[in-house]
Amino acid sequence: MNIIEKTENIFEHFEKFIELSEKLKSELSQRIKPIEFKKGELVLDANHICTKSYFINKGILRTYFLKDGKEISEYFSGINEWVNSPKSFILRKKDIYYIDAIESTQAYFINVNDLVYLFDNFPEMERYARLSMGSVFGHFMERIISMRFTTAKEKYDHFRKTYSDIYHRIPLGMVASYLGITQETLSRIRAEK
Amino acid sequence: MNIIEKTENIFEHFEKFIELSEKLKSELSQRIKPIEFKKGELVLDANHICTKSYFINKGILRTYFLKDGKEISEYFSGINEWVNSPKSFILRKKDIYYIDAIESTQAYFINVNDLVYLFDNFPEMERYARLSMGSVFGHFMERIISMRFTTAKEKYDHFRKTYSDIYHRIPLGMVASYLGITQETLSRIRAEK
DNA sequence: GAATAAATTTGACCTATATCAAATAATTTA
DNA sequence: TAAATTATTTGATATAGGTCAAATTTATTC
């Protein structure tokens, strides 16, 4: 798959929510650039402001934060998803989140300034942002429900459903911290059946 | 406080995110209407599509869903906040959420069709929606963190911080289901100290 | 303002999951 | 590919918070 085809993925993603004019496509193409990360590489350090948003083409990025010196996984992002540190990116100030690459990852990125330019000049981009945030919203609400009521096993089942395409590629310890259970408990859940 | 002053609250809320032209103010005023709910009254039945978004002026609305026949509180909304059933309102289909009034409540509402008209004709409304959703997003992320790692007591402390102005007006059972702990445990937490 | 209903508290007991510790297994690096 | 590091599993024990039941307090209704 070459670079031109990859850009098509992003356009397809936009077109789930809005129509893309040729003019907007051209402006997007000029501002969206490819980038690669090696397995284990840090994509965002929480000590810096997040100025880029990444659209994943291949691989998995993980967002996490530190609690008592330990890495707590916040979410995982696979193909055809945008990743950034939301509050940091939008408010242009530091937040608690780090981002790293669980696997070697190919992505595209756009700078926050370029995005702002697009928001200012293409009202449909505002609409895209509103609508695409809405769908992420739904996932968050579902997750809040799943975190509250389920046993550790039910939480794990929900995780596998949510991340059905990539769950098996995420190390056990990261899954455990994502679910808010211990590694030992998760290991035992996996063992039975 | 009369109706005109109340509308000012909504305008102030918008103006945290965007500038309101006189034209837009006038269009908003024509579409935003007052409504009242008695204590205990059902605002939205999950068997219907949510076609209105409510901006609270006084009182508290609660969003909840049913699990095994029991009401599970999802969130509480106080003064100067919008309330609706997000997925139902945006996607125009049924969702699991009910909304009721914990206290006698004064609110304003706008119909989804009117909102769509505003989105179509005032790009700054799209921006308002994007930016205001962003701040709700932050709260969700914080809540997901708080639900995962804290003891029941820490969860309750976080709840009191999040709802510092209204937490004492919400019945214990509703708080417990919001936090995903039992009433008994919450009662014991409240008792000590 | 009794009577009734609903919400909250208190008690006794039990279970899922945490914690601590050590053994394997898998992955990385020299 | 052997050594070293890191991840996962397994075992023994402790405990926070769940469950069930009943008492008490508070709110609602006639």
From TrEMBL, chains A, B:
Q: Which Gene3D superfamilies match?
A: Jelly Rolls (2.60.120.10)
Span of the signal peptide: none
User: TM segments?
Assistant: none
What is the protein's name according to its record?
Crp/Fnr family transcriptional regulator
Q: Can you name the source organism?
A: Subsaximicrobium wynnwilliamsii
